[in-house]
Design brief:
Layout lengths: L15 H15 L3 H34 L3 H49 L3 H6 L2 H43 L1 H7 L3 H38 L1 H6 L3 H53 L5 H42 L23 E10 L2 E11 L4 E6 L5 H8 L7 E6 L2 E2 L5 H5 L2 E5 L9 H6 L7 H10 L3 H4 L19 H15 L3 E5 L7 H15 L3 E5 L11 E6 L2 E6 L1 H7 L2 H15 L1
Parallel strand pairs: 3-8, 3-9, 6-7, 7-8
Antiparallel strand pairs: 1-2, 1-4, 4-5, 9-10
Helix pairs in contact: 2-3, 2-5, 2-10, 3-5, 5-6, 5-7, 5-10, 6-9, 7-9, 7-10, 9-10, 14-16, 16-17
């Protein structure tokens, strides 16, 4: 089992940090619902006052009806009791609907904004934060916050009024006896404060453990085939069990703290009732108080501990809500390092005629150099291939071109315009990308095509499907282009997935095409079809290809040979073979391996 993290001090309601979090939530999402909240709080107050009214009526009900035999009193007291319960039913129903409505609007708005913000962050952020962890924060923390906040708001609004009114009734009938009943309150303040701190710390760790569970499930479900083939079922069950056990341990600790809050109130209540009975009973015996007045007082005191218990539980749940709120705003506070320039360059009208130039580009991940003074030019309208050993920096070039990452030095230009002078939207509109991992969504073939051009017509999609050889297999499906491809395209073969991605790129019709080993995982027959589609796609476009199979780039206009982040040679296929060097070594090694196979 994963070792639990040491408790981290988090915000309490009195901390400036907590006030800042609640202030942000109010300003960002709650303020627009001010009047609805006001109405809900008023209704909560009316609902909460019912208990006080009922306890007040106990005295006349006992003294005038049961003892005094007053029939008229029975009528008006009965009518008041009926009215109080009717008011409680109506106000309770309406305020619950209003509070839940506000909570749902706030949380769905927060989730939308959070996803929008996350999509603006750099690739580095997603390398440091797993998908499962982010899903748990966007969905799990937000829903936890909504459930806790809604119930807490209803309880605070209703039970606070109930508490005040009931204490008022107790003070009205016997203020001395009320003071005796509440004299022990200071004794439980410190234990409750400790319990709140305990809840807050363990809830935060439990939320982190829950995120680990989500991440583990994400990895298991995406890698289920590898798990089965390698007979790792028991291993993964053991790992998952450890994650779940860690969550169970921390969640149980938080629940122990939650349960301790009402238990403390019950202990206090027991002492208070004992004091009331001893003192109050003596007052009745001495004739200083009627039985009805004492029963009203006793009823008020009995009822006061119920909202007090709920409020003590709410105090613990608010700590849980603050832990989730802190995690959510922690995501909002993450900022992208790659931004649009203050004065962006104009959109290039001649991007199809613009060369792509890398000039002395240096890049490293942390302290590991990847590109070392890389310089080359990809000529407009031609195909330039990047080859080299794994780790030579080929994929890094693509990431730099799209500004998914930034170089530490050097310059990248499209035409005469440095790419950092363009807005991210304008820059990325110049690229179509086909990679070895076909990014498909669990929707129809038609939907996945339309991601290349959201306003594409059905006619455009159908024409492009023919050009990308998608119609060849789609016609065999019962629903044609409206066939669902499954999660990540699992219902299709690798070649079929690649054809859809190529069709998407065709539909996008961008001037620059980036091909990241699009046929590396395909068999010979599928590769032949994909190569035909790629030839159609690259016609008239500036194309950069990361090549794994050197046979696929024999006709490239230029081949850039990379080694350890540097250009060690460049030219056409025949020239490079004739000169020897790394390219011929790679070529000979690959074809000897293929011949042996």
């Amino acid at each position: 089992m994963r070792k639990a993290k040491a408790p981290i001090e988090g915000p309490t309601l009195t901390d400036p940090k907590a006030k800042a979090l609640i202030g942000r939530l109010w300003h960002d999402y709650l303020k627009r619902h001010t009047w609805t909240l006001v109405i809900a709080v008023i209704l909560m107050g009316l609902e909460g006052s019912v208990l006080g009214g009922l306890s007040y009526l106990v005295a006349p009900m006992f003294d005038e009806v049961l003892v005094g035999k007053d029939a008229a009193a029975m009528t008006w007291i009965g009518a008041l009791v009926f009215g109080l319960f009717a008011m409680r039913a109506i106000t309770g129903f309406i305020q619950r609907i209003l509070v839940v409505r506000i909570g749902l609007h706030v949380i769905t708005g927060l989730q939308k904004d959070l996803l929008s913000h996350l999509l603006s962050l750099d690739s580095d952020f997603f390398q440091r934060n797993s998908p499962g962890s982010l899903i748990e924060r966007v969905r799990g923390d937000a829903q936890t916050l909504q459930g806790i906040a809604s119930s807490a708001l209803m309880s605070v609004g209703r039970d606070t009024v109930s508490l005040v009114v009931l204490i008022g009734v107790a003070l009205y009938y016997d203020w001395k006896l009320a003071l005796i009943a509440f004299i022990g309150i200071p004794l439980i303040v410190l234990p409750m404060s400790k319990a709140q701190k305990f809840i807050r710390n363990n809830t935060r760790i439990a939320r982190e453990a829950s995120a680990s569970i989500s991440n583990r499930l994400d990895e298991v479900f995406h890698g289920v085939h590898a798990i089965k083939v390698n007979r790792l079922e028991e291993h993964e069950r053991t790992r998952f069990s450890a994650e779940v056990d860690g969550f169970l341990h921390q969640q149980m600790r938080a629940e122990v703290g939650q349960s301790a809050m009402p238990a403390l109130i019950d202990i206090f209540a027991a002492g208070a009732f004992l004091a009331v009975l001893v003192y109050g009973g003596g007052e009745i015996i001495a004739g200083n108080k009627s039985a009805g007045e004492f029963l009203s007082f006793f009823t008020a005191m009995g009822l006061v501990f119920d909202p007090l218990r709920r409020l003590s539980t709410v105090a613990g749940r608010i700590q849980s809500a603050l832990a989730s709120l802190e995690r959510l705003y922690g995501l909002f506070d993450a900022q992208p390092s790659i931004r649009d320039p203050a004065r962006p360059a104009k959109v290039m009208a001649n991007a199809r005629d613009a060369d792509i130039t890398l000039d002395n580009v240096n890049f490293r991940y942390d302290d590991t150099p990847v590109l070392r003074g890389l310089s080359f030019t990809a000529e407009a309208g031609k195909t330039t291939a990047l080859v080299g050993h794994s780790g030579a920096g080929k994929s890094t070039v693509f990431h730099l071109l799209a500004r998914l990452i930034e170089p530490q030095s050097g310059q990248i230009r499209i035409g005469e315009t440095p790419i950092q002078n363009m807005t991210l939207a304008d820059l990325r509109s110049h690229f179509s990308v086909v990679s070895q991992e076909a990014a498909l969504f669990d929707e129809t073939i038609r939907y996945n095509f339309r991601l290349g051009k959201l306003n594409a017509t059905d006619v455009e999609i159908e024409e492009t499907a023919v050009q990308a050889f998608v119609t060849d297999f789609a016609r065999d499906q019962a629903d044609g282009l409206d066939t669902r491809v499954g999660p990540r395209g699992v219902n299709l073969s690798g070649g079929q997935r690649q054809r859809i991605v190529i069709g998407r790129a065709m539909l996008r019709d961008a001037p620059i095409l980036l091909l990241d080993e699009p046929t590396s995982a395909l068999d010979a027959s599928a590769e032949a079809i994909i190569q035909q589609a790629l030839q159609r796609l690259s016609a008239g476009r500036t194309t950069l290809v990361i090549a794994h199979r050197l046979a696929t780039i024999r006709d490239a206009d230029k081949i850039i040979v990379m080694d350890k982040g540097e250009v060690v040679d460049q030219g056409r296929h025949e020239e490079l073979l004739e000169r020897g060097g790394l390219y011929r070594t790679l070529y000979n090694l690959q074809f000897r391996t293929e011949d042996a196979a």
